[in-house]
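Teaching note: in complex prediction, the entire set of molecules is handled at once rather than each chain in isolation. The prompt given to students was simply: 'Predict the structure of this complex.' The entities are:
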Amino acid sequence: MSESILASTLVYGFVNSVALMLTALGFSLTFGLSGVANFAHGGLYLLSGFLAWMLIHWLKLPFPLAALATVAAVGALGAVLYRVVLRPVRGIVLSEVISTFAVGVAIIELFRWKGFTTYDFSLPVFVEGGVEVFGVSLDWHRVCIVGIGLGLTALLWAFTRFTSTGLALRGMSQNESTALCLGIDSDWAAMLSLALGSALAAVAAIALLPLGIISINTGYDALLVALAVTVLGGLESTPGMMVGSFLVGYATVLTGNTIGPRWNEVVYLLAIVLVLGLKPSGLFGRSKELEDRV
Amino acid sequence: MSARLFLASMSALAFLAGCRKEESAKDAPIVLGVPTALGTIEGQDSLRAAQLAVSEINAAGGLEVGGARRKLEIASIDTREAEAGLPVNDALAAMEKLVGEKKPAAIVVGAFRSEVLLSAMDLNARYKLPYLCTIGMTPEFEKKIAAGYDKYKYHFRLGLNAPYLVGNLGKALDYVHKKLGLDKLYFVHQDVGWAKGTAAGVAKAAQAAGWTVVGSDAYPTGSRDFSSSLTKVKAGKAQVVVPIFDMPESGVLVKQARSMNVTALFAGFISPAAPGTAWSTFNGEIDGLVNFVFEAGPIPLKTPRSLHFNEAYGKAYGEEARLKLSGHGPGPSYDAVFVLAEAIKRAGSLDADAVVAQLEKTDMEGAIGHIVFNKNHQAVYGEDPKQAAASLAFQWRGGKRVVVYPESAAESPIEVAAK
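The expected output is the structure of the full assembly:
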C-alpha cells in the first residue's frame, strides 16, 4: 500500500467512522436508556433532512436557524411518537419494534408519494474550503462532522453521569422497579430518551446530508447503518456502538482502498456475522451472557 | 300488445343499441398504455412527455383511423420496478392489470428496468400490442427480436441502448485524447448491470484508442464515500475520470472530488448533475463536469421538432419542470406517440400486424433527431441528427450547460479545468 493510500485510509477511515457513530448515536442512546429499539430512526433522519430543506427554501430561514428548528421539532416529534404510538404497547418488545418500524416506513414512503424523488434537495455545508491532514485533502465540513460527532458523544457521556436527569435515565435503564421506588417516572424517562434520540437523528442528518443530496433511500440506509454498528458493538452499550462504528468505518475504507469498493458491504457484513457468531451479544453487550447464566 | 309486436320492438331496440355501440366504439378514444416506474424522475418525465404529445394530437383534431378522427388517451400505471427488491413479477402484474382494465391499443414508454423489459416482451407477445419502449437499455432486447421475430415483432425501442451509449462515450473520449492530448483514464461506476457493461465496453474502446486505464472501481448502489477512488485517481495521476451512475448518491462524487482537490476532467454520466437546476443544487461544485444526455430533447437539437418539444414542455408544465427534464426517456417518449400515430394513420386501422408493418417503415423527424428503426426495431443513433437520433453531451460552465458533443450539434469544444 502506497503512502498516500495509507494516509487516506487513516484519515477517511476516521471520518467515516465518526459519521457512522453520529448516524447511530440516537438509536443507541434511546435503546440504552429506555430499552426501546426505535425503528423509526431512519424515517426521522430523512424527515430532518427534508424539514431543514423546506425551512430554508420555503420559509427562507437562515441555515443555522433552520437547523436548530429542525432538531427541536424532530425531538418534539420523538416525544409525541412515544406518547401516541409507543406508550400503549410499552413493554411488548415485538409490538414496539413493529409500531416504530411502521412509523419510519410511513414517513419515508410519504415523501416518496409526495414526489420528493427529484435531485433538488441538498443542504448547505457548514464551512467552505478544505485543509490538508497528513497530506490528505479534507474539506472543512468533514472536519466539522468529526467535531460534532466527538463533541456530542462527550456531552452525552457527561449528561448521563453528571446531571440529575441523566442519572435518572440511567437508573431507569439499569433497574426500572428500583427507579420507580425512588420516584422516577418511567413514562417520563422513556419519552425523554425518545425525544433525545430523535433530536440526535436530526443532528446527524443536518451534519451528514450536506455531503451529497437528500434521496428517499437515505432513510432506510440510516436505519441499516445504525442497526449494523449497534448490533456489532452490543445493542445496549454506547461504547460498544462507538467501537462498532470504528470497526465498520475502517473496514469499509480499508476494503475500498485495497480490494475495491464493491466489496465494502460484503466485508463489514461478514465482520458482523463473525462477531455475532463468536459473541452473540455483540462486542460489549451482555444480555445473551446474562440470559445463558440464568 | 301482442307477443309478436313485443318481440319486434325488442329486436329493433337491440339493433339500435348495437348500432350505437358500434358508433361509440368508433368514436371512443384510442387508449395508449404507459406501464412504467412512475416513482422515478425518468418515468414521471416520460409520462408527461407522452401526455404532451397526446394533447398536441388531440388539439389538432385527433388521429385519423380508417376515415374517422379519434382522440388519444393515456392510461398509466406505476409498476414500481425501480424500487429496491421489487420482483419482476410485480411489475408485470401491474402491466397486466393496465392491459386488462384499460384495453390499450398500444404501449408507450414501457419498462424501466431491463430485466422487466425482457419479461414484458414475453407477456406482451400474448397480447400482441405495439410496444414502443423508451427507457430500458439492454441489448438483449434486439437479440430477442432477432431470434424470434414473429413472436416479438411488436416491440420497438426509441430510447438509447447500452451499445450506443458505449459508442458515444468512446467517441467523446477519442476526441479528448486526440484534441486535448490526455491519455490517463479512471472509471468509477455503479455496481449494476448497465453501468458495469458500459464501463467495460468504454474501457476496451479507450485502450484500443491509446488510453491508459489507471483503474476502475465499482460502487454498490447507495454508496456515499468515494475517497478510495479519488485517492487512487490522484496517486495514479489520472487526467480523466469517467463516472457512470444513475443513483442520487452519486452527487457526492463531484462534491468530494472538489473537496479533495482532484483536478481531473470528469466526463460520463452522473444523473443528479444532469438537470438544469443541478448548478444550484451542487452550489456550483460541478463546474467543468461533462455529462451525457442519453437522448436529445431535454437539451434540444437545433432542429424544429426538438426545439418545439423543449418549448412546448416548458409551456405545458412550467419552466422549472423543463429545466429539470431527465436526460433519459422524455425525448423518445414524446416521439413514440407521434411515431405510433403516424403508423396507425398509414395502416388505416389499429390492427397490430398492420401497425407493426408501418412502424418498420418509420422515417421521420423527432425531438431526438431523425428516427428510423434498424431491422431489430432499435432506433438508429448517430452523430448527425439529420440522419439519426442523437445523444448529447454538455459541459457545466459557470452555471450553463454548454453542448460539447456531437460535433454537429456542439456549441463549443470540451475544455479542461473550466473555471
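Point out the following to students. The radius of gyration of chain A is 19 Å. Residues 3-293 of chain A form a domain with the ABC transporter involved in vitamin B12 uptake, BtuC fold (CATH 1.10.3470).
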